[in-house]
UniProtKB/TrEMBL annotation:
<dbReference type="GO" id="GO:0004077">
    <property type="term" value="F:biotin--[biotin carboxyl-carrier protein] ligase activity"/>
</dbReference>
<keyword id="KW-0436">Ligase</keyword>
<dbReference type="GO" id="GO:0006355">
    <property type="term" value="P:regulation of DNA-templated transcription"/>
</dbReference>
<feature type="domain" description="BPL/LPL catalytic">
    <location>
        <begin position="1"/>
        <end position="192"/>
    </location>
</feature>
<dbReference type="GO" id="GO:0005737">
    <property type="term" value="C:cytoplasm"/>
</dbReference>
<protein>
    <submittedName>
        <fullName>Biotin--[acetyl-CoA-carboxylase] ligase</fullName>
        <ecNumber>6.3.4.15</ecNumber>
    </submittedName>
</protein>
Length: 252
């Protein structure tokens, strides 16, 4: 079923009932010179996560890609992932969900045992893609997948998914998306403010973590986050700055 989105400015909206991937569509639009477009779909048939993983996107979710052309160097792109995570977390908390941010790109709902990630379930994930020169990005596409009006059973169980439907009942997807886009728009105007906002809702800080990074595994205490989205892990011997990777919360 199609949904009337009609988002308010500053993003033009392109809505699809079904599309392979809103990120792929936003990248095409970037190639055509577009800016400040929100691509939305009710269903994606080829949704992607990081490292080309599949992202399950049945009808009823909020599959959203924001195409922006910020005046920043490519190294600042992680701040946009963080901004989207904060935006989704705020909207979910307003809707009554105890959402928190798991570094770097997950919005999760806490489980019974809030001290470890046992039972933490993934409500949303973010995939940021970009193109640009050394000193300035040409475009950034911030893809955000939010499990909205879906049953968790419609998603892969090994992914331990959470959905808004299951947590608080069906949401008005147009309004929810509007809140996410507004918050993102506010945060992107001041990327350095994102870090403070992120810390407020982070579940990773203070936890013992194992991070699988391109340079190897880092195990220690997640002690801080630094602009543009670097996780600082205290291994007991040194403080390691991790810019990318998959993070697992360990029991203390
Ligand atoms: C992400 O990747 O979490 C980024 C997901 C981005 C999706 C959006 S939807 C709109 C836009 N268009 C796209 O094509 N993509 C973006 P990653 O951290 O790599 O997590 C991927 C893993 O999450 C998978 O390997 C599964 O285990 C799990 N997963 C797949 N679908 C899920 C879902 N709907 N909910 C929760 N977990 C899921």
């Amino acid at each position: 079923a199609a949904v009337e989105y009609g988002l308010e400015a500053p993003f033009d909206v392109e809505f699809h009932d079904s599309i392979p991937s809103t990120n792929a569509r936003a990248r095409d639009l970037a190639g055509e010179g577009a800016a400040d477009v929100a691509v939305l779909a009710d269903e994606q048939t080829g949704g992607r996560g990081r490292l080309d993983r599949a992202w399950s996107s049945p009808s009823g979710g909020i599959w959203l890609s924001l195409l922006v052309r910020p005046d920043v160097p490519p190294a600042h792109a992680p701040a946009f992932t963080l901004a989207a995570a904060v935006a989704v977390t705020r909207a979910a908390r307003e809707a009554g969900v105890d959402a928190r941010i798991k570094w770097p790109n997950d919005v999760v709902v806490a489980g019974e045992d809030a001290e470890s990630d046992d039972g933490e379930r993934k409500l949303a994930g973010i995939l940021t893609e970009m193109e640009g020169e050394a000193d300035r990005v040409s475009w950034v596409v911030v893809g955000t997948g939010i499990n909205a009006n879906l049953e968790p059973a419609a998603l892969p169980s090994e992914a331990r998914p959470a959905t808004l439907l299951d947590e608080v009942g069906a949401v008005d997807r147009r309004l929810f998306t509007q809140r996410v886009v507004e918050a993102f728009d506010e945060l992107r105007a001041d990327p350095e403010s994102v870090i403070q906002a992120w810390k407020k809702h982070a579940t990773t800080l203070g936890k013992r973590v194992r991070v699988d990074t391109p340079a190897g595994e880092v195990v220690g205490d997640a002690v801080d986050i630094e602009f543009p989205g670097t996780l600082v892990v205290d291994t007991g011997e040194e403080r390691v700055q991790v810019t990318a990777g998959d993070c697992e919360h360990l029991r203390p």
